[in-house]
Amino acid sequence: MADAISDQDQAPWWAWAMPWSAAMSGRSPWFGVAPQALNQPINPGWSFGNITVNNVNSSAPDVERDVVSRHSYGRQIGRLMDAVAALADEEPKAGDDKRIQRFRALAAEVDEIKREAAPRRLERLRHELEQIKSSDKSSDKELWTALRELLR
Question: Which of 19, 36, 114, 140 is the right S-S partner for 31, CB 3.0 to 4.6 Å?
Answer without folding.
Answer: 19
